């Protein structure tokens, strides 16, 4: 019995030993391998990752952040990278052979790889575009676009004076009501008319060594007229003066629907800034590598303002139509741009 058991135990031990040997032979050995890869930079399908794609293979750059601040590091750039493959690395990206890059440099796109001989260093030096460095420049682009205004804004006032406050107020109310009705008729249904200011103030007489004395009261009612029919502006001023207005405090033309003109001015200002950056790059013997920053400056849209003498002149010559020439507006735009310039040695 003991002999049989010993023989059986020996057979089991042999089986375990040979099985283990077979398992060790069957298991593959995974080793890191140092290689030099030449290809184009490309983004992974999942956001944030970078690949080097060659004709036959893709390599997932494990330490891409180390090189992303380089001006030449961008999708489509041809590079040469030296490092180790990491077959056992676990990543969130499902593309390419994991590759830890030790060094990377840009390559020319003129087929330098085909001219390489057995000396990799000599070939790399011949095919690589080298730069002295990157210089950042700040430029300002400006543009002025002329546009026709689409809205007129008129401020018309009625001023009355009387020794009695109530009389000054009553007379002003009557005249202002007549002015508003006349303006509505002359400006048309689309005009917006509203009160923009009202005041009733005493007038004083000053004598030496005496307290100021009230000599009367002045009432003032201002009406703001906003209208889009610019050809009626002169008629509105004339109608208001005939109805009792004795001041036209302000007349201005603006562009309410200014988005198309502003966009055009901004586009031309940006082009102007880019052109200036390219001119600087050419003067430095390089090229604009990338635009680092763009900011829109203050955009000025000054209105066309006419002198307030229109009202008083019309009041003196009520039988003469007030001439109004609208003119055009200057829409200004400004862009500040920071560009990175690469210069060759």
Brief sketch in words of this structure:
The protein is an alpha+beta fold and 345 residues long.
CATH class of the largest domain: Alpha Beta
Note the main sheet: 5 strands, mixed, barrel
Stated plainly, the CATH topology of the largest domain is called: Translation Initiation Factor IF3
Order of helices and strands: HEEEEEHEEHEEHEHEEHE
* N- and C-termini, Cα separation: 91 Å
Rg over C-alpha atoms, rounded to the nearest angstrom = 42 Å
Please identify, by name, the CATH architecture of the largest domain.
2-Layer Sandwich
Question: Strand order within the widest sheet?
Answer: 1-2-3-5-4
Instruction: Please indicate the percent range of residues in DSSP E strands (runs of 2 or more).
Output: 35-45%
Oligomer type:
single chain
Count of strand segments: 13
Shape descriptor: rod-shaped
Number of domains: 3
Which structural class do you get from the secondary structure elements?
A: alpha+beta
Please, what is the average pLDDT? Answer: 79
User: How many individual helices?
Assistant: 6
Q: How helical, in percent, are the residues?
A: 25-40%
Describe this structure in words.
The longest helix has 25 residues, at 2-26. The chain is rod-shaped and about 105 Å long. It contains 6 helices and 13 strands. It has helices at residues 2-26, 120-127, 165-187, 233-243, 259-283, 309-316; strands spanning 33-43, 50-53, 58-61, 78-85, 97-106, 133-147, 151-162, 192-205, 213-227, 247-254, 286-296, 304-306, 329-343. The strands form 3 sheets. Strands 1-2-3-5-4 form a 5-stranded mixed beta barrel. The chain folds into 3 domains: 33-129, OB fold (Dihydrolipoamide Acetyltransferase, E2P) (Beta Barrel); 131-149 and 255-345, Translation Initiation Factor IF3, CATH 3.30.110.170; 151-254, Protein of unknown function (DUF541), domain 2 (Alpha-Beta Plaits, 2-Layer Sandwich). The protein is an alpha+beta fold. Helix 3 runs antiparallel to helix 4 and helix 4 crosses helix 6 (309-316). A hairpin with a 6-residue loop joins strand 1 (33-43) and strand 2. Mean pLDDT is 79; it is low at 1-30, 110-131 and 308-317.
């Amino acid at each position: 019995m003991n002999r049989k058991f010993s023989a059986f135990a020996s057979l089991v031990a042999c089986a375990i030993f040979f099985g283990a040997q077979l398992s060790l032979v069957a298991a593959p050995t995974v080793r890191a391998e140092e290689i030099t890869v030449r290809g184009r930079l490309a983004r992974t399908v999942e956001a944030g990752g970078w690949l080097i794609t060659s004709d036959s293979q893709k390599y997932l750059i494990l330490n891409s952040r180390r090189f992303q601040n380089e001006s030449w590091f961008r999708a489509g750039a041809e590079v040469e990278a030296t490092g180790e493959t990491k077959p056992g690395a676990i990543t969130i990206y499902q593309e390419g052979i994991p590759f830890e890059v030790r060094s990377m440099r840009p390559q020319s796109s003129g087929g330098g790889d085909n001219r390489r001989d057995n000396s990799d260093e000599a070939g790399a030096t011949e095919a690589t575009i080298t730069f002295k460095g990157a210089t950042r420049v700040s430029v300002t682009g400006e543009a002025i676009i002329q546009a026709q205004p689409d809205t007129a804004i008129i401020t018309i006032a009625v001023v009355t004076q009387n020794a009695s406050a109530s009389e000054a107020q009553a007379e002003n109310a009557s005249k202002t009501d007549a002015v508003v009705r006349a303006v509505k008729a002359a400006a048309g249904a689309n005009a917006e008319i509203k009160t923009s200011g009202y005041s009733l103030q005493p007038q004083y007489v000053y004598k030496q060594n005496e307290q100021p004395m009230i000599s009367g009261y002045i009432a003032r009612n201002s009406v703001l007229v906003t209208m889009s029919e610019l050809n009626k502006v002169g008629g509105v001023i004339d109608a208001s003066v005939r109805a009792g207005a004795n001041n036209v405090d302000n007349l201005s033309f603006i562009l309410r629907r200014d988005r198309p003109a502003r966009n055009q001015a901004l586009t031309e200002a940006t082009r102007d800034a880019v052109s200036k950056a390219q001119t600087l790059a050419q003067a430095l013997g390089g090229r604009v590598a990338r635009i680092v920053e763009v900011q829109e400056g203050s955009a000025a849209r000054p209105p066309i303002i006419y002198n307030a003498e229109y009202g008083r002149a019309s009041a003196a010559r009520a039988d003469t139509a007030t001439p109004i020439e609208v003119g055009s507006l200057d829409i200004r735009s400004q862009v500040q741009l920071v560009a990175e310039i690469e210069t060759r040695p």
